[in-house]
Amino acid sequence: MPHVRSLYRWEGKIEDDAESLLILKTREDLVAALEKALLEIHPYDTPELLSLPVDHGAERYLDWVADVTGPPPNAHEDMSEA
User: Fold this and answer.
1) Full domain range(s) for residue 15
2) N- or C-end of the chain: fewer Cβ atoms within 10 A?
C-alpha cells in the first residue's frame, strides 16, 4: 500500500515520513525465515515487522495460501519414510 503517512518517535525526534506498507501472507512455520530475510534486506535499522495470527478465514483461501507456500519443512523426509 503506497502513500502511507508514518508518524513515529526516532532518536528523540518525531518523524513524519511517507512510506509504503507491505502485507505478506504465509504459513506460521515460515514466519521466522521470512523475518530473517526481510531484516537482511530492509534499509531501516528497526523496520516494522508484525506477525498477526489468523483466527478465522475462508477455508478455500487458507488452503490456497498453504498450497502456494509449498510443503512444510521436512515434508520430503516424512514422505520418504512412507
Assistant:
1) 4-81
2) C
CATH code for the domain in which residue 72 is found: 3.30.70.120
* Res 76: pLDDT: 54
Residue type, 15: E
Q: How many angstroms separate the CA atoms of 31 and 51, rounded?
A: 7
The structure's pTM equals 0.70
Cell of 60: 478455500
DSSP string for 27-78? -GGGHHHHHHHHHHH-SSSS--------S---HHHHHHHHHHT-SPTTHHHH
Q: How many domains does the chain have?
A: 1
Task: Tell me which residue has cell 514422505.
Answer: 79
pLDDT digits (tens, 9 = 90+) for 40-63: 999 988 899 999 999 999 999 999
Q: Name the β-bridge partners of 8.
A: 15
Nearest to 10, CA basis, from 38, 47, 36 = 47
